[in-house]
Amino acid sequence: MQQWKESEVAMKTLRIGLVVLAGVALVSGGCGGTKTVGVPAKADTPATPLASVLDAPEKFDGQTVVLQGVLSAQCAALCDFTYAEGNRSVTVYTPDPKPPKMQAGQPVRVTVQVHKGDEHVVLNAKGLEILPRKATP
Predict the structure, then answer these.
(1) Which of 29, 96, 102, 130 ranks highest by number of CB atoms within 10 Å?
(2) pLDDT tens, position by position, for the chain (137 residues)?
(3) What are the CA-CA distances from residue 49 to residues 31, 96, 137 (Å)?
């Protein structure tokens, strides 16, 4: 009976240890590296300044461009997020696959298709790279 209890305690200790190790692996795996969602542009594709797109949307209408800045807000349903570069910002719509929940200030590189509307520029995400926090432009 005593030996059975010792074995049970050892198994519980092992399970707790494995859970802790798995948690550490998940947390450390989320630090530092770039994560992607969808189909981002090639890494060597230069970023287009957001100001260029917003100031002359007719020039970019129907084109796919890369933006690099920060996420400043995100829809609770993950259907869109507010992308910012300096003092300029715009809503980026995120069709499937949806990005993970992110915090404001998260550096991102987003591949978008630009649509010049009658009153607003509409940006639809094609790919998203979640960059390490130290990579803020």
Answers:
(1) 130
(2) 555 455 564 444 445 433 333 333 333 334 457 899 999 999 999 999 999 999 999 999 999 999 999 999 999 999 999 999 999 999 999 988 889 999 999 999 999 999 998 889 999 999 999 999 874 45
(3) 27, 25, 11
- Per-residue tokens: 123: 């940006």
CA quadruple 105, 109, 113, 114: dihedral sign: positive
How many C-alpha atoms does 45 have within 13 Å on its Cβ side?
Answer: 17
φ/ψ of residue 84, rounded to 5? -135, 145
pTM of the model: 0.73
How far the first Cα of the chain sits from its last, in Å, is: 63
**Cα 97 to Cα 27: distance, rounded to the nearest angstrom:** 22
CA distance 124 to 137: 21
